[in-house]
Protein: L-threonine 3-dehydrogenase, mitochondrial
Organism: Aythya fuligula
Amino acid sequence: MPIVKTVSRAVSQLLQSSGCGCGISIVPVRCIGVSPRQVASDASFHSVSFSESDHPRVLITGGLGQLGVGLAKLLRKQFGKNNVILSDIRKPADHVFHSGPFIYSDILDYKNLREIVVNNRITWLFHYSALLSAVGEANVPLARAVNITGLHNVLDIAAEHNLRLFVPSTIGAFGPTSPRDPTPDLCIQRPRTIYGVSKVHAELMGEYYHYRYGLDFRCLRYPGIISADSQPGGGTTDYAVQIFHDAIKTGKFQCNLKPDTRLPMMYIDDCLKATLEVMEAPAEALTMRTYNISAMSFTPEELAQEVQKHIPELQVTYNVDEVRQAIADSWPMNFDDSNARRDWGWKHDYDLPELVSTMFSFLGSDSRIAQAN
Ligand SMILES: NC(=O)c1ccc[n+]([C@@H]2O[C@H](COP(=O)([O-])OP(=O)(O)OC[C@H]3O[C@@H](n4cnc5c(N)ncnc54)[C@H](O)[C@@H]3O)[C@@H](O)[C@H]2O)c1
Ligand SMILES: C[C@@H](O)[C@H](N)C(=O)O
């Protein structure tokens, strides 16, 4: 009995200890073994030397998707080219490979991931690997492995090596029983996609590791992200990127969501700015570890009208994809991000008109606009 009492007192002290995790020295260390793939620290690099400044040394997982290359560019500007390593399981395009350090990393290979963190003295990790909502529904076992098992690997390595860890969540972490207009930070979360379920799991596990082990976990729930120079990876909000390419190439766009489907959206520069800001925010400013961020909300019809201000002859038709429509109908229509705005000064720069004109100036539609006028 005395042993049971001592253990339960220790556990209740742990559970009551505050956010910083001070005094909790236990970390979830897995068996230390020798990786069969031990390589010299610089084996995979075409540029190897880290600066000796105080800059964080950054690893981005899943970095060849829609968001990772842009994030690397922003972070390299801030912290130096060689302090930011992009990684993925895909082969990088030439311009990406030559823009800074790139390394192969499969997040399901725990030892290899640990080796990369150790050999490169990583201090900040941005965990971008994931299968998004539509591709996740098409391959649930793979989505479960990448989004859940992969996250477990990342969490353990981050806790073991005292990293600051950023994991993005999404509007997809909410479901049909959540309040949808607006959706606050704290409310019912019962998503009906494997993507959403894995992201709620990531939010909860990250926060648990923060309170239990003192892990510096930071998480933003992104809206659908719109970018000009990178393609979306198979989500429900992809239509809002595709419309620009089709408008310029063919003047026709077939939308796979109904015209009145309202979803929160954001231009990539705002998304990446928020990501860096929350990672740089002083820990004392963060009253929470998972925040909604928001910029605008629109329907396909409203986006098409704004695009038609630039390409008046654009013809839009609708051919609804039932899987994507059901997902979109269960997601927030508007996102309440007042906590992010209050705690660390989040402020977006792009509303719908600025987003559309910026996309067209990137995609070089000037000649078409001139023709249209
Ligand atoms: N793009 C958006 O609209 C959006 C919105 C909300 C949240 N997010 C989140 O932001 C993050 C990045 O999104 P994205 O749009 O760039 O995704 P993406 O689908 O474009 O890219 C994901 C990357 O993960 C990689 N990957 C897959 N399996 C892997 C594995 N086993 N090991 C390592 N890498 C692997 C893929 O090769 C791919 O390059 C994701 O976590 C996503 O959930 C994105
Ligand atoms: C919203 C987001 O997480 C992603 N773009 C998707 O649609 O799946």
Remarks:
- Residues 130-372 form a domain with the Rossmann fold fold (CATH 3.40.50.720).
- The radius of gyration is 22 Å.
